[in-house]
From TrEMBL:
Main location: membrane
Family: Belongs to the binding-protein-dependent transport system permease family. HisMQ subfamily.
Chain segments annotated as transmembrane: 20-45, 57-80
Example of a GO MF term: transmembrane transporter activity
Name listed for the protein in its UniProt record: Amino acid ABC transporter
Tagged with keyword Glycoprotein: no
Bilayer topology annotation: Multi-pass membrane protein
Organism the protein comes from: Klebsiella pneumoniae
One Gene Ontology cellular component annotation held by this UniProt entry: ATP-binding cassette (ABC) transporter complex
Record's subcellular location: Cell inner membrane; Cell membrane
Length: 188
């Protein structure tokens, strides 16, 4: 195959690619913020006393971690409207990414909390902090420092996974590139 890509021929398409890149960045940032918030909440629930809520959250984590992201996305896009929950492709993509990252980050944060020495919990209690204050002010900061590399890796995976949302016609970077390629393949 002797065909070569000449970037000079792509210059007219930069506005479309940059618009797609901007949508991808927005989607990634919002999904990361939402997913990490859910992950921290889930880790707090799963690290606490065993109970019904912890088991339900554990079920959510296992279901999400054991299904493909594209299946989750299609369920949200095509399944939820049948239950009366209408949303745009962008809202569905964001929800799928948040739910997915929430499950994975729950286990990452929980691992960081579990390796926290018991003495930190006790120190917070001795200082008169409530269980919640001890968790937020004493236990969580060093736990997040320990798991920072794993969380960053998961956030990168979210950004890479954003290309899947082009399958539901959400106009992010992959969608823009596919559109340019399909429209202009014979011209380039």
């Amino acid at each position: 195959m002797t065909e070569q890509l000449h970037f000079s021929e792509l210059w007219p398409h930069w506005p479309e690619l940059l618009a797609g890149l901007w949508v991808t960045v927005q989607l990634t940032v919002l999904a990361t913020i939402g997913g990490l918030a859910i992950g921290i909440l889930g880790a707090a629930i799963r690290s606490g006393r065993p109970g019904m809520l912890s088991r339900v959250w554990g079920g959510y984590v296992e279901i999400i971690r054991n299904t493909l992201f594209v299946v989750q996305l299609f369920f949200i896009v095509f399944g939820l409207p049948n239950l009366g929950l209408k949303m745009t492709a962008g809202e569905a993509a964001l929800l799928a990414m948040v739910v997915n990252l929430g499950a994975y980050s729950t286990e990452i944060v929980r691992a960081g909390i579990q390796v926290t020495p018991k003495g930190q919990w006790e120190a917070g209690r001795v200082l008169g902090l409530s269980r919640t204050q001890t968790f937020v002010r004493v236990v969580l900061p060093p736990a997040l420092q320990r798991i920072y590399p794993a969380l960053v890796s998961q956030c990168i995976i979210v950004m890479l996974g954003s290309s899947v949302v082009s399958q539901v016609s959400y106009e992010e970077l992959t969608f823009a590139a596919n559109l340019i390629q399909s429209r202009d393949i014979f011209e380039l």
